[in-house]
Design goal:
Pathway: Amino-acid biosynthesis; L-lysine biosynthesis via DAP pathway; L-lysine from DL-2,6-diaminopimelate: step 1/1. It comes from Adhaeribacter aerolatus. InterPro entries: Ala_racemase/Decarboxylase_C, DAP_deCOOHase_LysA, De-COase2_C, De-COase2_N, De-COase2_pyr-phos_BS, Orn/DAP/Arg_de-COase, PLP-binding_barrel. GO terms for molecular function: diaminopimelate decarboxylase activity; pyridoxal phosphate binding. By secondary structure, the protein is α/β, with parallel strands linked by helices. The protein folds into two domains: about 1-30 and about 285-395, Lyase, Ornithine Decarboxylase, Chain A, domain 1 (Beta Barrel), CATH 2.40.37.10; about 30-280, Alanine racemase (TIM Barrel, Alpha-Beta Barrel). About 30% of the residues lie in helices and about 25% in strands. It contains twelve helices and 17 strands. The protein has helices at about 1-5, 10-20, 30-45, 65-70, 80-90, 105-115, 125-135, 175-185, 205-225, 255-265, 280, 315-320; strands at about 25-30, 50-55, 75-80, 95-100, 120, 140-145, 190-195, 230-235, 270-275, 285-295, 300-305, 325, 335-340, 350-355, 365, 385-390, 395. Strands 1, 10, 11, 12, 13, 14, 15, 16 and 17 form a nine-stranded mixed beta sheet that branches. The chain has an eight-stranded parallel barrel with strand order 2-3-4-5-6-7-8-9. α6 packs across α7 (about 125-135) and α9 packs parallel to α10. It is elongated and about 70 Å long. The relative contact order is 0.16. It binds ligand LLP. The site of ligand LLP has 21 residues, from β9, α11 and α12.
Length: about 400
């Protein structure tokens, strides 16, 4: 019961076990105390340098999670009209909401304009033209930032790298002259800054130094043309420790922000923004599942869970590692392929993992699932949506 003992809180453990008996598996279990501690560390580390952090809703948009994040004073980084709607509903003020994304629809842009959000992070000339026209129709001036592709390798999985010229994201440097000429003609747009995001689950902090160098060079491009940018948004991407979630439950926000403080050439009066998702919420969530069956294959044993790729897609989509723990059985370890019930061979959480000899009905925790877990769930095979259970000052289901 590794995870639960770490809570070091006997009454809560008892409550939790009671709730486990009642909750149908699989379900997501969120530790709101850990989330609070994480948010506090991130907020305090950023505050030292007056950095502003927007939370990337795409990582997890559950009500108690968003409420807490909003209460801690983070802004909202949204990538769809529905995320903007959700952020507003959860109390984020429009002045702290940004709308990013490479393919914003007219309806989504109109909605965000109606609500006077802080800024649109724009990714193409055509998008600028559309926002200009739609803002004009509403009699408004839209604040925009240009998402520039810095061509920096994030050194992460190729599926979650975004800052290379071959990626679909952002405006490339060679397009910038044309984009600036276009902006001159867009009467309903106000350019307030530039935006970068190079990828996700970045664990080598040197990558952020490279990002800073590129951002400094790109800033010079604007300065040399006499263009002042009040806002500088360097995106998100800070990784978490999927291998040792108990040893490192909170990412090193201190070092992360210190790098930007040291290496970014912030212009006088310029506000620096970050868009963190994973590092704020990943460790607070686990997917709790029950073992349905244990069976012997030709070369390996299978532990067949009642959770699958419909609840947590990351291992199947990115070959991502999530630590798996048997919370019920103890004793000598046996090697398993831990798989789900979905009718796909790829529905496998992990191959060749050692777990205590596993029995039908054992509880299993798949750790570090608070980010890009529930939000990427699907109904494939007509599956029910897994519930969320929250541990915090009180235990409750939502
Ligand atoms: N800003 C932009 C423009 C982004 O595209 C993203 C994530 C973020 C901020 C937040 O990045 P974070 O701090 O969470 O790394 N589903 C994948 C991750 C996709 C990330 C997409 N963009 C996964 O499960 O690993």
């Amino acid at each position: 019961m590794g995870y639960l003992q770490k809570q070091n809180n006997p009454p809560m453990l008892k409550d939790l076990q009671e709730s486990w008996q009642q909750e149908p598996t699989p379900f997501y279990l969120y530790d709101l105390d850990l989330l609070r501690q994480t948010l506090e560390k991130a907020r305090n580390a950023a505050a030292q340098y007056n950095f502003q952090v927007h939370y990337a809703l795409k990582a997890n948009s559950n009500k108690p999670v968003l409420r807490l994040i909003q209460e801690f004073g983070f802004g909202a980084d949204c990538v769809s009209g529905n995320e903007v709607k959700r952020a507003l509903k959860r109390g984020f003020v429009p002045e702290h909401i940004v709308f990013a994304g490479v393919g914003k629809s007219d309806a989504e842009i109109n909605f965000a304009l109606q609500h006077n959000i802080f800024c649109f992070n724009c990714e193409s000339s055509q998008e600028l033209e559309v926002i200009d026209a739609l803002a004009g129709k509403q009699g408004k001036v839209a604040r925009v930032a240009l998402r520039i592709n810095p061509n920096v390798d994030a050194n992460t999985h190729k599926y979650i790298t975004t800052g290379l010229e071959e990626n679909k994201f952002g405006i490339n440097m060679w397009e910038l002259e044309g984009v600036m000429a276009l902006l001159q003609q867009c009467e309903n747009l106000e350019l307030i800054g530039i935006h970068f995001h190079i990828g996700s689950q970045i664990t080598d902090l040197n990558v952020f130094k490279n990002l800073c160098s590129r951002v400094n060079e790109i800033q010079q491009w604007f300065i040399s043309r006499g263009i002042q940018l009040p806002h500088l948004n360097v995106g998100g991407g800070l990784g978490v420790d999927y291998y040792q979630p108990d040893e490192n439950p909170i990412s090193d926000f201190e070092s992360y922000f210190a790098i930007f403080n040291e290496h970014l050439e912030v212009q006088p009066g310029q506000q620096v923004h970050f868009e963190l998702g994973r590092a704020l919420v990943a460790q607070s969530g686990s997917l709790i599942s029950r073992v349905l069956y244990v069976k012997k294959g030709l070369t390996t044993n299978f532990a067949i869970l009642d959770a699958g790729m419909t609840e947590l897609l990351r291992p199947m989509l990115y070959q991502a590692y999530h630590k798996i723990e048997n919370l019920t059985s103890q004793g000598p370890e046996v090697k398993y392929n831990v798989v789900g019930p979905i009718c796909e061979s790829t529905d496998c959480f992990a191959k060749d993992v050692f777990l205590p000899e596993t029995q039908r009905n054992d509880f299993v925790a798949i750790r570090t699932a608070g980010a890009y877990g529930e939000v990427m769930a699907s109904e494939y095979n007509l599956r029910d949506k897994a519930k969320a259970v929250y541990l915090g000052l009180e235990v409750k289901s939502v």
